[in-house]
Each structure stands twice: as C-alpha cells, then as structure tokens.
Design goal:
The structure is a single chain. The protein is an alpha/beta fold. It is 32% helix and 20% strand. The protein has 5 helices and 8 strands; from the N terminus they run βαβαβββαβαβαβ. Strands 1-8-7-2-6-3-5-4 form an 8-stranded mixed β-sheet, sandwiched between helices. A hairpin with a 7-residue loop joins strand 4 and strand 5. The longest helix is centred in the first third of the chain and has 17 residues. The chain is globular, with a radius of gyration of 16 Å.
C-alpha cells in the first residue's frame, strides 16, 4: 500500500500580522509558480468564512502581478443585479464587480441570486467566462456546494478550478473533518491545506 499524500500546510496559528502576511506571500508564491487562473478554496468544518483568507491571498498576489484578482464568494450569498454599477450583465445573467477598497485589494465578482446549487453552477460558469480577460486569477469559495447530495455538483465546481485548497481552523476543525474535506477534492486538483487560527 502506498503512503497517503501529505498536504502542504500554511500555518496561521495565533500569528502576528507580519506572520499572516508572510503566510499569504507563501501561498501567493505557490499559486504564481503553478499558472492557475481559477483557484478554489473549500472550508473544512469550523471555518466560519473564507472571505478574509481569500482577500488576504488576493492582496498578496498583487505583489507578484500588479493586477487585482477576482473573488467569488459562496453561491448562497450571491445577489448581483443587472442595474448595479459594475454589472457585466448580458440579458440578466451576468455578474457584478464590486471592488474592495485599497491598493491591491481584490474585486468581488457577484453573480445573480441562484435558487439552487445546479443553477448556481451555471451562473458560476457564466461569471468565469465574463471575467476571463479581467483578472489574472479568480479565487473561488466552493463551500456552498458541500453536502451529502451535492458531491457531483462539487466535483464539477472543483473541475472548473486549476486547483483547490482546503481551509481548516485551529481548535475548531478536527483532523477527521479535515481529512474528510481533503477527500472531497480529487488528488490532481488538491493544492494542500491552509490552516487558520
């Protein structure tokens, strides 16, 4: 029996601001080394929100290429509307760009509200096409597609990425939960574990 692969872990355990910046730079360097345009992030149980992690990584990526990256949050939070400034709307289906303040901060890419995971997946594909030439990279929160009946939808969403990182929380995510989450991402797409805490 061959040994199980060991995930890359980027620890942020009670880290100082400087240590967090160093960790983000390491993650950004890894993402720049492998030319991945769409990078998925999948939260293990215990991680309340991926947005802070993705924003920090997006800012760190700016240091390597001075262009803003896009961030797409969980599909349940989407509320983009065609009449909003920054709309990339085409017949009511396109996403909206919402720039975050600050030099090097990412843009939130917000597709229209979706009634279910399958429709959200279609909206995601359209949003990725609409932003294809706008961002060097798009960071994608895949957590909304996790659930017993959603494994097929999650597999398709992960398949849209160049790679997916698991995000676990120190003291909140058990090793068993992290391994279960790790197993949801096929080996050729798995970028490792980002440990926050």
């Amino acid at each position: 029996k061959s040994p199980e692969p060991t995930p890359d872990v980027y620890p942020w355990i009670g880290a100082s601001e400087q240590a967090v910046e160093v960790a983000c730079a390491r993650i950004a360097r890894r993402l720049r080394r492998d030319p991945l345009r769409i990078v998925g992030f999948l939260a293990a149980p215990g991680v309340p929100s991926l947005l802070p992690v993705m924003v920090r990584v997006g800012r760190a990526l700016f240091a390597f290429e001075p262009r803003r990256v896009g961030i797409i949050g969980p599909w349940q939070d989407w509320d983009g509307t065609a009449d909003e400034p920054g709309s990339l709307d085409v017949k009511g289906h396109g996403p909206v760009l919402r720039p975050l303040p600050g030099l090097g901060s990412p843009d939130l890419v917000v597709p229209p509200r979706a009634p279910d995971p399958d429709t959200a997946l279609l909206s995601l594909q359209l949003a990725l096409r609409r932003t294809d030439d706008r961002f060097p990279q798009v960071l994608l929160d895949l957590t909304g597609w996790v659930g017993p009946s959603l494994q097929d939808v999650l597999s398709v969403a992960v398949g849209l990425t160049g790679g997916t990182a698991i995000v676990a929380a120190v003291g909140l995510t058990t090793l068993t939960d992290m391994r279960r989450t790790w197993a949801k991402v096929r080996p050729d797409k798995n970028l490792g574990v980002v440990l926050v805490g």
